[in-house]
Design brief:
Butyryl-Coa Dehydrogenase, subunit A, domain 1, 3 domains, four-stranded mixed beta sheet, globular
């Protein structure tokens, strides 16, 4: 399926994304979710086992995503994108998450963290130089924020610096745990241009792989999402043209914070897809697996697990859809309410991460000894789920964000 394009000009808010009468998706959005699930299975289902076993990202992985029409999902057609709104793009993430979390994670880092942020914050020259090749899959994108001493304290602990030198900035420092880092051609990097200003002295830059002084590590060996390449970025007197500054000098904080809520909501949607798949596998197994002469689904303890998993999943989905709809409304010209969105994004990601971990844990329990085997799909989902209680702001940080917004005068 190739998604049809449309422009992203402000229009009627997407409050109709979830039908008001029954809180279900509209028929159009359900069709998009279903079609993208089929497309994801067609392109990636046969590769999942190898991706996990070998920590392998296929050379044609982005060509496959391009065939699906999901690169540059929120970017207008004029730059080569699909022109979806944020709600529709979130449904794409949910669909891919149902098939392989390594693919949805790599896609999100490229399409949401890098491409969408460039479209929202870069000037027209930068958009035209970079977006077309990011949208057709010939270039891979990533976001460079986390550092060895700056994880939860991403702003205060940032040590990467950028010093103006004529028509270039000289970057020095390192980033770590960067999704797509080992394969990225284009990275949106945050660095301190005026360290004495703290978080208000940060700027954003587009760094290309071929820039002198820029290098990356080999892929890290991870517990889960092993097919998604994660690594470190190194800047050793890396020269970046002034023209690659995004949003103006010392304006990186605005670029960063505007993208963080969207990142958390998008990640939540991918996690919903993972949880849906884990529940589906557990339900099918409970129907098919026989012990003591009958399907294990006949036993009340298994029924209790399935009921709890269903309730957890419904709660996750409802909250994540609400947060996504609010975010899409604002991006489409709806009334701004950053504080509400900030706590909703943290709440959705908190619920999704913890809910998915619980669902995957119970799914493995229902599978019993088979679930403990590394080569099973349910085991792969269990190992992948843990990162969504850590990455993008730990579950502890998410609670702090929610509480601070609730206590705000």
């Amino acid at each position: 399926m190739v998604l049809s394009g449309k422009d992203n000009s402000p229009s009627t808010p997407v409050g109709g994304a979830i039908a008001s009468a029954n809180f279900e998706l509209s028929s159009e959005h359900q069709a998009l979710l279903d079609e993208m699930t089929v497309a994801s299975r067609r392109e990636f289902a046969d590769l999942c086992a190898r991706m996990d076993a070998e920590s392998w990202w296929p050379d044609d992985g982005f060509a496959r995503l391009a065939r699906m029409g999901v690169l540059g999902a929120t970017v207008p057609e004029i730059y080569g994108g699909a022109g979806l709104d944020l709600f529709e793009a979130g449904l794409v993430g949910q669909a891919i998450g149902r098939v392989e979390p390594s693919v949805s994670t790599t896609w999100q880092s490229h399409d949401n963290l890098c491409v969408h942020n460039l479209y929202r914050s870069a000037n027209e020259d930068t958009r035209r130089r970079y977006l077309p090749r990011l949208c057709d899959g010939t270039s891979v994108g990533a976001l460079g924020m986390t550092e060895p001493e700056a994880g939860s304290d991403a702003l205060g602990g940032m040590r990467t610096t950028a010093v103006r030198d004529g028509d270039c900035y000289i970057l020095n420092g390192a980033k770590t745990f960067i999704t797509n880092g080992p394969i990225a051609d284009i990275v949106l990097v945050y660095a301190k241009t005026q360290p004495d200003l703290g978080k208000h002295g940060i700027s954003a830059f587009v760094v290309e792989r071929n820039f002198r002084g820029f290098s990356t590590s080999p892929p890290f060996d991870k517990m889960g999402i092993r097919g998604s390449p994660t690594g470190a970025l190194y800047f050793d007197d890396c020269r970046v043209p002034v023209a690659n500054l995004v949003g103006g000098e010392n304006e990186g904080l605005a670029v960063m914070m505007a993208g963080l809520d969207i990142e958390r909501i998008f990640a939540s949607m991918m996690v919903v897809g993972m949880a849906e798949r884990a529940f589906e596998l557990a339900l099918d197994y409970a129907r098919e697996r026989r012990q003591f002469g009958q399907p294990i689904g006949n036993f009340q303890l298994i029924q209790s697990k399935l009921a709890e998993m269903f309730v957890e999943l419904e709660c996750m989905r409802g909250l994540c859809y609400r947060a996504l709809a609010r975010c899409s409304d604002m991006e489409s010209g709806g009334p701004p309410d950053r504080h509400t969105l900030h706590r909703l994004a943290a709440a959705a990601f908190l619920k999704a991460g913890e809910g998915c971990m619980r669902i995957c844990d119970e799914a493995v329990q229902i599978f019993g000894g088979s679930g403990f085997m590394r080569d099973t799909e349910v085991n792969r989902l269990y190992r992948a789920a843990k990162v969504y209680e850590i990455g993008g702001g730990t579950k502890e940080i998410r609670r702090i964000i929610i509480a601070r917004e609730l206590l705000r005068a």
